[in-house]
Amino acid sequence: MEKPAAQAPGKAASEEKQLDDKELELERERKLKKEQKAREKEEKKLKAKQKETARLQAQATSDGPKKSEKKQKKKAAGDENPEDFIDPETPSGEKKSLAPQMAKQYSPSAVEKSWYSWWESAGYFGADPASTKPPFVIVLPPPNVTGALHIGHALTVAIEDAMIRWRRMSGYNALWVPGVDHAGIATQVVVEKKLMRERKLTRHDIGRDKFISEVLKWKDQYGGTILGQLRRLGASLDWSRECFTMDDQRSKAVTEAFVRLHKDGLIYRDYRLVNWDCTLLTAISDIEVDHLELKEETMLKVPGYSSPVQFGVLISFAYPLEEGLGEIIVATTRIETMLGDTAIAVHPEDKRYKHLHGKHAIHPFNGRKLKIICDAVLVDPTFGTGAVKITPAHDPNDFEVGKRHNLEFINIFTDDGKINSNGGAQFEGMPRFAARVAVIDALKEKGLYKDTKKNEMNLGICSRSNDVVEPMIKPQWFVNCHTMAKAGLDAVRSKKIEIIPQQYEQDWYRMA
């Protein structure tokens, strides 16, 4: 076999050199191409940017006059004086003289100006007592004189105005009676603050008659706000019949109605629990009580107290039993009211207390005997100790228990929230929440205090004074409504009164 001839060393070196030169050339070409692509890419970006700049410049050039025109129009509208379109030449009470030109923008004051005074002076809203037309009457629910109208008032006025105008145009002798309400406590609070601020006096210092006189002065000074708002709303009210719930005519009517109802045996007086405000020294309605939900122990600022008061806790203590029977443990969120306790209630089926039925506990501070009564309505044997302290004069549930079991009702508070003589000499004269601390200390001294635990509770707060509402028994006037309710029911059944929509008839029957 033949072998390949061997190459000379010089020839091999020459071939290697040629190969290196070729690779270098290829590398240079690749680099040049890469640089060329980068330049082309940069040129494209530059062209795109120039194109966008040109487009924006063209758009700015085309929009410039339009924007300028809009700006000028807006400036012109802003320079326009709305007073130029309010007919200054129309005397009050005369028919409106329309402006010679319309305003470029809608102006309510320009459109509404002068119409209402003309309607009112022309007597368009008055009702004729001698008219033979069928009557249609609405009494405007009187807004409180203390404030201004809100959106709810505006809605009511709009609806009633539509109804009264429609009836008026339909041939009815339509009457819409305007008026304002004295607002009870709201006005009292405002006027009392004014008296204290200006003269350092309370309503008790000046007496009832002079205080009412101050209320009437305040109404005359500030009550015009609402009446002006009603006119601005365009309400077609008969202002010749304007009322105020404390004016002479209404006050005489209230007195007359009261006397007649009393003579007819329909008004009677009884003692009931009320929401008492110890700051305002008056009873307040349920709607004037705000409810504060407490989830745990909470310290609250109370009017008349320099330090916050503890709420949201349940305090347990023991009453000693007669005849050496030991003690019975109860719990309360208002420990100071134990000074007015007159009984302890247990469930009749609770075996733990069967041996105590009819027995008595002894009050540790005054020696009063507290009968142990059975009440399945109030007592839940599974809650707490199953024994409940009863304070009929200071708790709504206990009040009902007191009536069921003929218990004694003992009021332990003065009107300004201090402990009275019924609370015992040891605590008499103390503010109620100071007495709360003192009672706990006294129970500890006697070894009757057990413990304090956090407890969820609903706390009533007066919306006017922010004071804690105190349930307190007070004499109240009541009206026996049975005969009137029957007359109201019969009127609906006979269709003398029609309820619209008809499905609400059931509400009428249920509420009666």
From TrEMBL:
Catalytic activity: tRNA(Val) + L-valine + ATP = L-valyl-tRNA(Val) + AMP + diphosphate
Biased composition (Basic and acidic residues): 13-54
Top-rank taxon, per record: Eukaryota
Coiled-coil annotated spans: none
Protein species of origin: Triticum turgidum subsp. durum
GO cellular component: cytosol
Coiled coil found in the keyword field: yes
Spans annotated as Disordered: 1-103
A molecular-function term among this protein's GO annotations: ATP binding
EC numbers, comma separated: 6.1.1.9
Signal sequence range: none
EC supergroup of this enzyme: ligase
Family assignment from sequence similarity: Belongs to the class-I aminoacyl-tRNA synthetase family.
The protein, known as: valine--tRNA ligase
